Amino acid sequence: MEQKNVFAGNPLIPGKRSKIDSGALEFLLLKDEAVRAKGGARVLPVFDGRPLVVSSRSPQGVVVWSLCWQSLDRFGSKFHSSLSLGSLSEEAVTVAEEELVKKKYDKLVYLGEKDDVPFFAIDFSGVSTADSGRDARAVTQKLAQDIASVFTPANASEKCAFIDLRTLMVAADVGSKPAKEEVAIAGHARALLEWHKQAQFCSRCGTKACPLEAGQRRECSNPVCKNKSYPRIDSVVIMLVIDKERDRVILGRQSRFVPRMWSCLAGFIEPGESLEEAVRRETREEVGIDVGQVIYHSSQPWPVGPSSMSCQLMVGFFAYATSFDIKVDGEELQDAQWFTRDSVRKALTYTDYKRAEEAASLKIYNICSREKAASDAYAEQSSPMYVPGPYAIAHSLIAAWANAAPDSLLSKV
Ligand SMILES: [Zn+2]
């Protein structure tokens, strides 16, 4: 059974080269005639972890959006002349110049290849706002808008802006392979670029660490140390705890959740612990329940957590309870309860996830066209409870159990 959670299924990674030195990078960027014949390498501008997105709206009001890929020709001297018309974006010129004209490649990361065309992401958010006065946030936002406006497509109906990855995640039609692929690529780009921001200095000796292999790793510049570091992945177990006898599951509420939202239990894996052990320990810690059999369901890259964790890996399980009295710890979890299959099915149908997706798409269009967003996000008002949307592995676990025959989960693995 295919399990393609959102952020998985990135089409560029299967074609990714395992090693890429500076010579290979130059070749990919500039010299490969076959690549140039296909329009050259594609580059995705990113600002503060937000990819550049192009959006348009049909006369019927349907919003269409996609990642706003650029050809290399948009950078270099052409980029310089278009930006120099603006007022605030001198530093953005510097980013593009250093990366692609002076061949510094500090903020350029290689994402992979598809149909022999290489794809990269470039980070514009290293621009300093230290001397910009008190309102650094407003200055940064203006800078992001200025840079985005440089990339505005020639077609007047299309607008572009840097869009938060969580908004893209909610806006993605999970039934659409192309939409999911776009979000997976954007997630990979954000994860890599945010990791580079976190890993600028050697964790062993504190000397500056330099990116190598087109951003696939970093190495300490101290010749005595040369400590290597690789993109960070933080592993999390997420589990649906099942009472097989009574045909019910545990859902919990964290205090940071929006009202009425319930989800699976989850927790970080300790060093030296197996996945199954982490599932059992976290379940015992959070709700005081003992777990016997643990069955793997699927996993999900999660590049939308805190920026200090550039990419979490959510590993999803069904966990069969052997004790049944819930004792909530009150710290990590605010509440946890057993829910019957009927109540979980109702929660899944109460919420109009399609409307949430359309509201997020409209938000993207409004940001791209500099219109004031009508509302931040769609919120279901009428349901007594709901579970996370189809973009989350929690939803996949809950829906798989709710829609499966009671005994069928065991036989699928
Ligand atoms: Zn070092």
Automatic annotation (TrEMBL):
Superkingdom of source: Eukaryota
One Pfam family named in its UniProt record: NUDIX-like
Keywords tagged on the record: Hydrolase, Magnesium, Metal-binding, NAD
Name recorded for this polypeptide: NAD(+) diphosphatase
PROSITE patterns on file: NUDIX (PS51462), NUDIX_BOX (PS00893)
Organism: Riccia fluitans
Residue ranges of every copy of the Nudix hydrolase domain listed in the record: 231-361
The keyword Hydrolase belongs to this UniProt entry's keyword annotation: yes
Cofactor(s) the protein needs: Mg(2+); Zn(2+)
Enzyme class: hydrolase
Catalytic activity: a 5'-end NAD(+)-phospho-ribonucleoside in mRNA + H2O = a 5'-end phospho-adenosine-phospho-ribonucleoside in mRNA + beta-nicotinamide D-ribonucleotide + 2 H(+)
InterPro entries in the record: NAD-cap_RNA_hydrolase_NudC, NADH_PPase-like_N, NudC-like_C, Nudix_hydrolase, NUDIX_hydrolase-like_dom_sf, NUDIX_hydrolase_CS, NUDIX_hydrolase_dom
Family per similarity comment: Belongs to the Nudix hydrolase family. NudC subfamily.
GO molecular function, one term: hydrolase activity
EC number, as in UniProt: 3.6.1.22
